[in-house]
Write a structure and sequence with these properties.
globular; 10 helices; binds 2-acetamido-2-deoxy-beta-D-glucopyranose; alpha/beta
């Protein structure tokens, strides 16, 4: 516990800087004092983390980050598949605005010339850098991770990524196999390394370079794990997923400990999230591709120096590396938490506001012609707490808030392309709202040529109550006669 004097000083600093950054639209960003941003994006990470109450998982480094962060318990992705989710939160627009529900178009051509989070920071004097999988590769980012618009230097991709599907895993027969889920022996791997290890190394090198830079930096790092490419029997896949999370945790641990060593933890915001969740057998599914909580819910936390935690003093380490497999890695005391429902589209305005940049204005409807605006709420109000030592669990009742997600289907019944329909094959769109009490999904007719949903053409509905049915196994839609759609679902 810090002495009261320090807490008071902190309070003054926080209130002062808060008014400054929240208050004025005109606030410029003084390069000298500007906060850096480290954005960590994980692939397919559900809430299988110690800091989200999972007792099985070993994730001490991420838990340590959480202990210094503001953590959102109820954050939801807008579509549970990589490219649409990433394009959505990186532009701050929903899939219906980016018009990307599959992997096959570039929003600047298909929808509108929307600014991205890194582009906005770049235009505001930041050096912006991409390491690993930040944008989804391919057409959806114009085969260039949206360069040159988003990034100051060419995005980095780990060279060992190309071995993702080569035979690197030794089976019981002693031979190497492709895509088996089992621990790899580093000696069997081409280049003797793995993509996420390379990305961590690259990110640390960039941090070292930026330490002496006159400009603030925005560094986004996208980890590939725990993404799993194929489907496997239950026990093994769960075990392998959890092991992948611990491996990811070690990479986050090394990265954050480097931030400490470089004395950047006192002026760098760390945001941590994932593009969507992942089903490990729930509803008979081993994937994302749905509107259920297990696939739409994502971890989301922000460490803001001097705001979510006291500024580290010279030499003090906030993020010492912790070995997940140390027998007694103590469970970290969680930091402050928010129960309100929030959405990943809020990342753009929130990061901008936390860094002291002007928060982009709300989007008009429609907003295809507007390059810079936000569809998500700014979450800044949640950072406006007065006393860091106040019990973080006493945070009052959640506000009435709603998170929207959606998922497209080619037909009412499962078929070969139900998981990932191409735009031209989409016939039904499942629009889903999650409130603190329930999840309600309605599947309606959708026309992929004019992007219009027909809310009078209801194909099916789902209604799950969070308290009595947290895993969403009992659909109450028909019991509730279904007919009347909540007003909030109708765009
Ligand atoms: C799209 O936005 C970028 C970045 O502001 C700009 O350089 C480019 O000219 C714009 N393209 C069009 C077609 O407006
Ligand atoms: C996409 O990339 C191509 C090839 O580099 C480039 O010619 C084109 O202008 C890019 N599209 C946009 C909208 O910037
Ligand atoms: C951060 O720490 C370094 C090293 O202790 C110090 O030189 C610098 O002034 C500090 N920056 C802030 C914003 O406190």
């Amino acid at each position: 516990m810090p002495p009261p004097g320090r807490a008071l000083l902190w309070l003054g600093l926080v209130l002062g800087s808060f008014c400054a950054s929240l208050g004025s639209a005109a606030l410029g960003n003084d390069a000298k004092d500007a906060l850096n941003v480290l954005l960590i994006i994980v692939d397919d990470l559900r809430l299988s983390l110690g800091c989200y109450g999972d007792k099985l998982i070993k994730s001490p480094n991420i838990d340590q980050l959480a202990s210094h962060s503001l953590l959102f318990q109820n954050a939801f992705a807008q579509q549970a598949v990589c490219a649409p989710s990433r394009v959505s939160f990186l532009t701050g627009r929903r899939p219906d605005t980016t018009r990307l529900y599959d992997f096959n178009s570039y929003w600047r051509v298909q929808a509108g010339n929307f600014s991205t989070i890194p582009q906005y920071f770049k235009e505001n004097g930041y050096v912006t850098m991409s390491v690993g999988k930040v944008f989804h590769p391919g057409i959806s980012s114009n085969h260039s991770d949206d360069s040159p618009y988003s990034w100051s230097i060419p995005p980095y991709h780990p060279s060992s990524e190309k071995y993702e599907n080569t035979k690197t895993c030794r089976g019981p027969d002693g031979e190497l196999h492709a895509n088996l889920i089992c621990p790899v022996d580093m000696a069997d791997i081409p280049e003797g390394t793995l993509p996420d290890k390379q990305s961590t190394k690259q990110a640390i090198q960039l941090l070292e370079k930026m330490k002496t830079s006159a400009s603030p930096f925005f560094l986004a790092i996208g980890y590939h794990k725990p993404h799993i490419p194929f489907r496997y029997p239950k026990r093994k896949i769960r075990q392998s997923y959890f092991a992948s999370v611990s491996y990811l945790d070690t990479q986050v641990g090394h990265l954050l400990s480097a931030l400490d060593d470089l004395q950047l933890a006192n002026n760098t915001i760390v945001a941590f999230t994932s593009d969507h969740g992942w089903a490990l057998g729930e509803h008979g599914e081993w994937a994302k591709y749905s509107n259920f909580d297990v696939t739409t819910r994502v971890p989301l936390m922000f460490y803001v120096p001097g705001r979510t935690a006291l500024l580290p003093e010279a030499g003090e380490k906030l993020f010492p590396y912790i070995d997940p497999f140390d027998s007694i890695s103590e469970l970290m005391k969680p930091g402050r938490q928010v129960m309100d429902l929030v959405e990943l589209v809020s990342l753009f305005p929130t990061l901008a506001g936390l860094a002291g940049l002007h928060v982009p204005p709300r989007c008009p409807v429609p907003s295809f012609h507007v390059e810079l605006c936000r569809e998500g709420q700014s979450l800044l109000e949640h950072f406006r707490f007065h006393d860091l030592e106040q019990d973080p669990t006493l945070h009052g009742n959640p506000h009435e808030s709603i998170a929207y997600s959606q998922y497209p289907r080619p037909a009412d019944s499962p078929q070969w392309n139900s998981d990932k329909p191409s735009l031209k094959d989409i016939k039904v769109m499942g629009y889903s709202i999650r409130t603190i009490d329930y999840r309600f999904t309605v599947w309606v007719g959708f026309n992929p040529h004019d992007f219009l949903a027909n809310f009078s053409d209801v194909h099916a509905g789902e209604l799950y109550f969070v308290d009595s049915d947290p895993l969403q196994d009992h659909n109450m839609y028909n019991d509730s006669q279904g007919g009347d759609l909540p007003q909030s679902l109708i765009p």
